[in-house]
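Why does residue order matter? Because the sequence determines the fold. Keep that principle in mind as you read this record.
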Amino acid sequence: MPLSIEFQSFISRSAWSTNLTDEQLTRVYMDAYQRSYSAGALICHRGDPADQWLGVIEGLVKVDTVSKGGRSTTFAGVPAGSWFGEGSVLKDEPRPYAVIALRDSEVAFIPRSTFEWLIDNSHSFSRFVIDQLNARCAYYVGLVANLRLNKASARVAFCLAELFNPQLFNATDPTRGLSQEEIGRLSGLSRQNTNRALHDLADAGLLMIEYGSVRILDLQGLQDFAHSED
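Structure:
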C-alpha cells in the first residue's frame, strides 16, 4: 500500500533521513508501513521478535515491563516525532519490553532487513544510530540514578526534561500533552505525588500546568533541577 503524504512527510522530517540517497529513501518508502492504535492498546509484546524499528508519528507511547508479581515499570515515554527500539533490532533478540499506546497513536515500522541495509549502506544513518544508542545509554544511566536518589519533584523534572532530548526526541513545541496520570506512570509516582511535584516545579517558574498538558517555561532550569540532588 502506498504511503500517505503525512507518513512520507514524517520520514522526511526525521533527522536520520536527511542525507540518504534517493535509492535509500525509495527503499524506506517501499518497505515502511504504519498502524493505528487506540489508547491502552498493546503495540509490541515483551518477548516478541524485534523485527522492526519503530517511530511515533502521532500520539504518545510508553516502553515498560511487568514483573511476575504484576508490578509495572515504565522505562520511557516516547512522544511523536521519535524513533526507538534500535538496540533490540541490532541485537536480534526478543524484545525485552512491551510497547503500549498511552493515547491514540500512529506508529511507523521499518523492517529489520531495511534497517540493517541502511546500516551497511549509509554512513550518515550509521552515525545517527550510534549517536542514538549513546544518548539512550546516558538516558537510562540518568534514569536509574534519578529513581534511586532523587525526591519526587526532581524525578518529574527529569522525566519531562528528557522528553526534549534533541537526540532521542524530535521535540520543538514547549507544550507536552501529558495528563498527571501519564506523568506519574513515566516517573514511577502516584498521581498524588505527581500533582505535588508538578506544583513545586510550577512554583519554581519552570513550567505551567494546563488542562491535560504541561507547558515548559524554562527547559534549562528544569534540567538543572532534575540533577540538583545528584
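The chain is about 45% helix and 25% strand.
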